[in-house]
Structures are given as C-alpha cells and as structure tokens.
C-alpha cells in the first residue's frame, strides 16, 4: 500500500481508538461492580463490601480519567483528519454524539463527584444511588456511541441528497438493524472484561497470602459473573454472526475467508488468505460448518469475496485472524469460568494454586477480545466509512502526508508515556489492595449529617484510606 495521508490517518485513528476503547469498556463494567458492592454493603452491613467498593472506586477514577482524555482526541480527529466525514454524515452522527454528551456524560459527571467523594458526606442510600446512576450513565454512553457506529455499519432512517445524509426517521436511525445485538455484545464484553480483572486481582492477593477475606470475595463474585456471562456472550455472538450474514455479507465473507460461493462455507480453523490469488493457503477447515453456523444448514450457499468488486471488498487478513482470536479467547473464558465454578462447588478453589496462578495473569483476556472484535467490526466495514454513503478514502481531509506523520509520531510518544503512567498507577493500586478489616474498629457507616462532615478538616475526611483514619472529628 502507498504510504500517504489517507493511510497514515487510518493508522492514527486506529491507534488512538484502540487505546480509548479499553478504558470505557472497563469503566462500564467496573461502575456496575462498584454499584453492586455498595448495594450489598447497604443490604448486609458487611464491612468487606464497603472496603472493596472504596478500593475499586480509586481504580475507576483513574480509568475514567484516561477514557475521557483519549476520547477527546478522537473528537478532534473528526475535524483534523476526517473533515469530509462530518460534511457527508454529520446531520446524523452529530446529534447522536450530542445525545451521548447530554444524556450520558453529563449524568456521569453530575453524580461522579458524589460517588468519589461522598463516602462521609451523604447517607448510604444516596451514595449507592449515585453509583447506580454513574453505572447507568456509562451504559447509556455506550448506547449512543454504539448506535452511531451501528448506523455507520448499516445506515437506516435517512435519505441522501447530493452525497449528504439527512435524517428522516430517528427511531430507525437509533435502533438500526445491527444495533441491538451489537450493543448487547459490547456491554456483555465490558462486564466480562471487568470480571477477569477482579478475578486476577483476587487471585494475586490469595497467592500472596494477604487480604484473604477481600480476595476470596473478589474471586467468588468474579467466578459467578464469568461462569454466567461467558456462555451468554457466545450465544449473543452467534446471533450477531447470523445477523452479519444478512446485513453485511462482504464482512462475513472476509471473516470466513470465503472465496467460492458455489460451495457451502467451510469453517476455516487456520489458513493464510491470499487476496491476490483469491484463495487460502495452508488451509485447515471443516466443510459446511460455516454455512451451518450462519444459515442453519451445511448445504447453504452465501456470497463469497469474489461476488464483490475488488474495490468493494474489505481487507481479509485482519478480520480473519482477529475473529479467530476473539472466538478462541471466548472459548477459553467459558472453560476457565466453568472450571472455577467446579472448584468452588468442591470447596477447593482457594487451594487450587495452579488455577489461581493462571487466574492472576488472566486480566488481559477481555481487553484483547474487545480489541479483536473491534478490529473485525471496523476493518470488516471497509472500504466504507458509512456503508453505501461515504467511502473512507473520500472522507480524509486535504492534508499532507508529512503533517499526519508528525502528528502520528507525537500521538505514539505521548500515549506511550501518559498511559504507561496511568496503567502503572492502576497496577500499584491493585497491588496495594483493599484495606484490611480491623477487629477493634467499629463498622464504618457514612455520616447522615453532611454539614457536620463539611466542617471537619480535610485530613479527617480523606485520611489515608484506612478505616481508623476515616473517623470524622468535629472542628473546634
């Protein structure tokens, strides 16, 4: 491929969005987990749930901040690198992004302060409610972003005049055909990803031999979530694949490296797709299984890559391998969750050191699966930025190759420095772990008198995170 402004702009956006997507996905799942912990604390009064909620709230704050910073960069690129995108589809995408800001981001920002700093200032029920609202806000943010992305995958509810899309039916735009399953798939992936981070954290502390009660709680809750959610994700993914066969047949053909529509599609376990020769080299495949999975019959025929013009075909290598990475990780997740549930039922999960050793290194699994799925989704949509309306090459701004190369180099440098520091901070917080429950300390309850808390010195309010340092003393 020729190295020009178009190619470098694609690389730059892929680089920045890949950094960005993992943080919102993690905060979606983590906010729900924190709300669950606070709900359990409110219901049972068990101090361990309170300490775990405080512990994960610190990590949520760092992740949320990095997600916001990386998201702002994406917005700028719409104007700097892809200005023609806004001209062609801004009438549709602009309001959808605006709804995300008005209904989700403002909601999160309004109650995030209460969630982060309201431990001693508000009643327990209000603190729990703020966490629920933040969790709902993160999910609502995902709703609008995925609605916009799904519309770009399969536009609906619009009309095109002079190459510009105009909204006609907002219900059809928001709930376009590929949106519901795409939203369910992404939300489930977010919760599953968070569950593996929680599992890895609990396993790390169990193996280290400290914070046993908190670590056991994290492991139990994570196993339950993984054992239930991982199979559900497989079912959602199967329906999503069948839907792709209907609405995005070129993408399905690329995923399966399917070249000959006169034969049923084989399930290609491994191959090296050769796009020039239009065949798969070193292929290992099971005949008819791809047709069975996508169309319900081993004899079913579906469009192949040769049925599309060369200029209308998506790249094959990235969707092909990324899809197999995603599915492979998904299968391992199911197996890992069910083995953990079996060990838990036998009462040996906390003594199964080999399983715990694997568990402590399982945290990247969800992030890799999300990135793999994102590559399948976005690369498989090419050469279209908005299918049937705007090609990617027609959306790039009139900028020089040197300008994009310089900005790309700066992005790589800054991201590597800033996000390495952020990830190191998160790892440090995880390594420190939640506070221990001290037998001599009474159960901690949030103050029901916020004004009294406001009169206390800052050191008494914030302390250093230990229960004994959190007791508020009235000011003199």
From TrEMBL:
This is Cytochrome ubiquinol oxidase subunit I. InterPro entries: Cyt-d_ubiquinol_oxidase_su_1. Residues 466-476 have a biased composition (Basic and acidic residues). Belongs to the cytochrome ubiquinol oxidase subunit 1 family. The chain crosses the membrane at residues 20-43, 55-76, 96-118, 125-146, 183-207, 219-236, 316-343, 355-376, 404-426. It is a multi-pass membrane protein. Keywords: Cell membrane, Electron transport, Heme, Iron, Membrane, Metal-binding, Transmembrane, Transmembrane helix, Transport. It holds the Pfam family Cyt_bd_oxida_I. It is found in: Cell inner membrane; Cell membrane.
């Amino acid at each position: 491929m020729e190295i020009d402004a178009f190619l470098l702009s694609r690389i730059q956006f892929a680089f920045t969005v890949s950094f960005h997507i993992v943080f919102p996905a993690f905060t979606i799942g983590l906010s729900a987990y924190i709300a669950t912990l606070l709900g359990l604390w409110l219901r049972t009064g068990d101090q361990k749930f309170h300490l775990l909620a405080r512990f994960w709230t610190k990590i949520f704050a760092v992740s949320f901040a990095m997600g916001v910073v990386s998201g702002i960069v994406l917005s700028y690129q719409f104007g700097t690198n892809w200005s023609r995108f806004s001209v062609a589809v801004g009438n549709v995408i602009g309001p959808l992004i605006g709804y995300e800001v008005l209904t989700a981001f403002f909601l999160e920002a309004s109650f995030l302060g209460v969630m982060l700093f309201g431990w001693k200032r508000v009643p327990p029920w209000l603190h729990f409610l703020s966490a629920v609202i933040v969790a709902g806000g993160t999910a609502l943010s995902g709703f609008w972003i995925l609605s916009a992305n799904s519309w770009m995958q399969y536009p609906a509810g619009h009309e095109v005049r002079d190459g510009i899309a105009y909204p006609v039916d907002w219900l059809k735009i928001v709930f376009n055909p590929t949106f519901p399953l795409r939203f369910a798939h992404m939300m489930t992936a977010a919760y599953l990803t968070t569950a593996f981070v929680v599992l890895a954290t609990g396993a790390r502390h169990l193996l280290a031999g400290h914070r046993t009660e908190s670590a056991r709680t994290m492991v139990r809750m994570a196993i339950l979530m993984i054992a239930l959610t991982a199979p559900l994700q497989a079912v959602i993914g199967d329906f999503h694949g069948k839907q792709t066969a209907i609405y995005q047949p070129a993408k399905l053909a690329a995923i399966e490296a399917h070249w000959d529509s006169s034969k049923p599609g084989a399930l290609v376990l491994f191959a090296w797709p050769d796009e020039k020769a239009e065949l798969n080299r070193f292929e290992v495949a099971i005949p008819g299984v791809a047709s069975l999975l996508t169309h319900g019959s081993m004899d079913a025929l579906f469009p192949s890559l040769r049925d599309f013009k060369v200029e209308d075909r998506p790249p094959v290598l990235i969707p092909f391998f990324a899809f197999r990475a995603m599915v492979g990780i998904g299968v391992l997740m199911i197996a890992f969750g069910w083995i953990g549930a079996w060990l838990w039922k036998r009462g040996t999960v906390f003594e199964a050191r080999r399983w715990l050793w694997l568990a402590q290194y399982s945290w990247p699994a969800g992030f890799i699966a999300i990135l793999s799925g994102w590559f399948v989704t976005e690369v498989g949509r090419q050469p279209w930025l908005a299918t049937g309306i705007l090609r990617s090459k027609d959306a790039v701004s009139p900028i020089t190759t040197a300008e994009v190369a310089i900005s790309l180099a700066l992005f790589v440098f800054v991201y590597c420095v800033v996000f390495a520091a952020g990830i190191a901070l998160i790892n440090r917080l995880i390594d420190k772990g939640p506070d221990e429950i001290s037998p001599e300390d009474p159960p901690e309850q949030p103050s029901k008198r916020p004004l009294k808390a406001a009169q206390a010195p800052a050191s008494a309010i914030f302390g250093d995170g230990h229960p004994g340092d959190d007791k508020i003393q009235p000011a003199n």
